[in-house]
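Hi,

I'm pasting everything inline rather than attaching a file, because the server keeps stripping attachments. The sequence lines come first, and each chain or strand is labelled.
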Amino acid sequence: MSECTEIRELLGGHVLGRLEPHEAERVARHLETCPHCRREREELAGLPALLDLAGSADAKPESPPAALEEAVLDRFARERRAPSAAARSAPRRPRWSGRRLRLGLAGAAAVAVAAVALVLSGALSSSEGEEAFGHVNLRGGGATAYADLRAVREGTRLDLSVKGLPSGSKPVYQLWCIPDRGRWISGGTFRVDAAGRARVRLTSAAKPGDYERIVITRGEHGARMLAGGVVY
Amino acid sequence: MAVSDASLIGRLASDPTGDGLRTLYRRYGGELYGFALNALHDRGLAEEVVQDTFTSVWRNAERYDEERGSFRTWLYALARNRIVDLRRRAAVRPPLAAPGMAEEELGGLDRALEDALLRWQVAASLARLSQEHREVLRLAHFQALTLREIAEALGLPLGTVKSRTYYALRHLRLILDEMEVGP
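And the predicted assembly:
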């Protein structure tokens, strides 16, 4: 084994400062005369400081939830579909602005979703600030939520704050914009923290004026309705 | 051979399937989420950052210039902007902030974000090492054992421990290079 080969096998321990004293001296003497091994050592020399940043050799980074990939792609698909239609509708004032609110979820029960018991009160007000054309209070199953609605090029942007949703087994929740008739339009998925809270910004391809209610379901496919609020 | 990031971005505008975006997400979504979580300590907000960042990627795909930097650099710049927005949204402003305070705060935030990114990258690199490589680094660096003590503890020849430690660091360096973490 050549001197350089032997020294290189010691470089790991040398960089980490874990060689016996006589080995460390041998490496140091060799490095004084060997530019190749010196360069090799320089490449590794910054690693101990980087390792300190990690704090542990087993600090496993947390993976994103599987649903996030679909949420990213779902938004891509919705926003790619939406621009031309949304651009036409954006300038007009939402047709429900200023009207009284209708409370209850009776209409939503007609949709093929197994609704769980919930009490709902909803409120949609006229514009608050420059862009928000309304807000919705959602209630049901012990959960309360609030969402600001803004007309955007893609449809509707919803800034949702929610608390009190069940957090056991880390469920995925989904927000939906629901027209009086026709298909539900997803606003995307989200998760809650251990206390059942979340604050998320979601975008739906649903255009202002084209839906009547907003609900939150458990499960990515709207399997179980948990809370809702009425838009009228 | 894998399609380059730049090629995928170039095709996003005319890609109705989303396959290009899916490939980019699978390459970078995990680390971006880890970075955002490290910076914000909130899973919901971290997911929001990832969603918004990838949305910015395809909306601004035509602005990406490979010659000005890697896709990863651009991606993290977009994510960093979103994180700054979120932190500002959450921050309670002091009532009588001195002039220039905002810039100082922003500088501090940038440093904190850089640290968060680096912490995540090192942890993610360690996770990609083999169990044997991670073990020698745990014992040598974090538990401060000499290589001789490690050989005794693991019942391995000293020569094996020496070469394993060297190759563990070499591999770690290689992974960090892939992540564009400098020496």
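The radius of gyration of chain A is 29 Å.

If the labels don't parse on your end, tell me and I'll reformat.
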